[in-house]
């Protein structure tokens, strides 16, 4: 088995392509093509409390899943290099710190002059950091069966806490809406550093309506990364041929999706508080996607998806750079002269998004050709 499977990079690339290019392009496309209004909501997040997921809602869980698929391959390489456990722990710590700092930069929180407004935990990269940290430690120290038991315990533990713990001020006790336990934990532990805490002029603070939660939700961030780790371990295993591994990915994906949908009759699929059902449903779809891409790319050796590799090989880079560099401004300067010739702003937006996508892909392709890979 090679150190790296192309299908893993293609899946990661598909995810980042959706995030950085395709979503914005489709928003404009749905405006200019008659009859596609029904598709428009798929390129935005569903509001808090929704029990369904849009295509845009799948991006973050797939990002976490992909971060887990690399763990078995990376640690196999470290072992082959003769690294000690202490060195591996230091590697984990460095990656977690780097991801955490990058996440704070993405949200504009790193050098905030007012410490009370500093948001410690508010970005996808930080959820990856938490999930990766614990998943890597479990991978190093536990057998596969124990890892599965841990993942199941985390899923059930989250559910039990949400269902049976009720605070004196009315949060929890089976509430998955505005008064859920995840929200209470974030407000209580983080206080003014909570993601949606608003500081008053008098120095106090209040909270916006509940939205993304982070601390208690971390239980399922870990499971999401672990499901990716399980998929990576399955693909890395020497036993079984490509067809068998593809079938196993599809069967496990369908099983997780089915269990998640069945469980959602009692616990809703809610991305904002990262419920256990959301974890199973999204991880199930990730398994199915990986199974299909693995069979097409690594078993059949079809090269039609190779154009996604630049996105997958520098996923963290393009996610991060998208926050601090506005490629849309560059594309506006390049095609801005057309704006007065195109009366429909959505047609102009479609052209601008196309140029934006070509710029992003061109940069990443050049980096791939020059073998410049930004690793964290």
Summary of the model, kept short:
The protein is mostly helical and 376 residues long.
Describe this structure in words.
- The mean pLDDT is 92.
- This protein has 376 residues and is an all-alpha fold.
- It is 62% helix and 2% strand.
- The chain contains 13 helices and two strands; from the N terminus they run H-H-H-H-H-H-E-E-H-H-H-H-H-H-H.
- It is globular.
- The two termini are 24 Å apart.
- The protein has a two-stranded antiparallel sheet with strand order 1-2.
- It has one domain.
- As a percent range, the share of strand residues is under 5%
Count of helices?
A: 13
Taking strands numbered 1, 2, ... along the chain, how are they ordered across the largest sheet? 1-2
What is the chain-wise order of helices and strands?
Answer: HHHHHHEEHHHHHHH
What's the pLDDT, averaged over the residues?
A: 92
- The count of strands amounts to 2
Computed structural class = mainly alpha
How does the overall form come out from the CA principal axes? globular
Give the tally of structural domains.
1
Helix proportion: 55-70%
End-to-end separation in angstroms reads 24 Å
Largest β-sheet summary? 2 strands, antiparallel
Low-confidence stretches: none
Rg calc: 21 Å
What keywords describe this structure?
376 residues, mainly alpha, two-stranded antiparallel ribbon, 13 helices, 2% strand, globular
Task: Note the topology.
Elements: H1 6-32, H2 59-80, H3 85-106, H4 124-141, H5 144-164, H6 181-190, E1 197-199, E2 205-207, H7 218-236, H8 242-263, H9 276-299, H10 309-313, H11 315-324, H12 327-335, H13 345-369
Antiparallel strand pairs: 1-2
Helix pairs in contact: 1-2, 1-9, 1-11, 1-13, 2-4, 2-7, 3-4, 4-7, 5-7, 7-9, 8-9, 12-13
């Amino acid at each position: 088995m090679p150190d790296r499977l192309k299908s893993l990079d293609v899946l990661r690339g598909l995810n980042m392509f959706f995030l950085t290019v395709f979503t914005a392009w489709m928003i404009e496309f749905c405006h200019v093509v008659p009859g596609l209004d029904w598709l428009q909501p798929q390129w935005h997040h569903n509001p808090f409390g929704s029990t369904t997921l849009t295509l845009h809602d799948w991006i973050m869980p797939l990002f976490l899943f992909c971060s887990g698929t690399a763990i078995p391959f990376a640690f196999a390489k470290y072992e082959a290099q003769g690294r000690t456990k202490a060195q591996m722990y230091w590697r984990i710590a460095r990656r977690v710190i780097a991801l955490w700092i990058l996440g704070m930069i993405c949200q504009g929180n790193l050098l905030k002059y007012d410490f009370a407004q500093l948001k410690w935990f508010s970005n996808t990269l930080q959820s990856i950091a938490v999930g990766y940290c614990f998943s890597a430690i479990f991978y190093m120290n536990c057998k596969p069966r124990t890892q599965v038991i841990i993942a199941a315990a985390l899923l059930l533990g989250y559910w039990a806490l949400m269902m049976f713990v009720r605070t004196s001020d009315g949060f929890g006790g089976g509430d998955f809406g505005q008064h859920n336990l995840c929200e209470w934990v974030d407000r209580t532990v983080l206080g003014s550093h909570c993601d949606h805490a608003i500081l008053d002029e008098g120095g106090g603070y209040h909270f916006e309506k509940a939205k993304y939660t982070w601390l208690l939700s971390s239980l399922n961030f870990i499971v999401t990364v672990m499901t990716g780790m399980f998929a990576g371990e399955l693909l890395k295993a020497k036993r079984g041929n490509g067809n068998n591994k593809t079938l196993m990915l599809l069967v496990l994906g369908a099983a997780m999706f089915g269990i998640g949908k069945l469980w959602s009759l009692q616990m809703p699929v809610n991305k904002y508080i990262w419920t256990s059902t959301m974890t199973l449903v999204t991880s199930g779809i990730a398994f199915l996607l990986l199974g299909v891409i693995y069979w097409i790319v690594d078993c059949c050796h079809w090269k039609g998806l190779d154009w996604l590799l630049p996105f997958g090989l520098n996923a963290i880079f393009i996610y991060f750079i998208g926050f601090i560099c506005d490629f849309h401004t560059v594309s506006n300067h390049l095609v801005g002269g057309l704006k007065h010739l195109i009366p429909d702003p959505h047609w102009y937006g479609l052209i601008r998004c196309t140029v934006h996508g070509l710029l992003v892909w061109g940069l990443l392709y050049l980096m791939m050709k020059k073998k410049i890979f930004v690793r964290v």
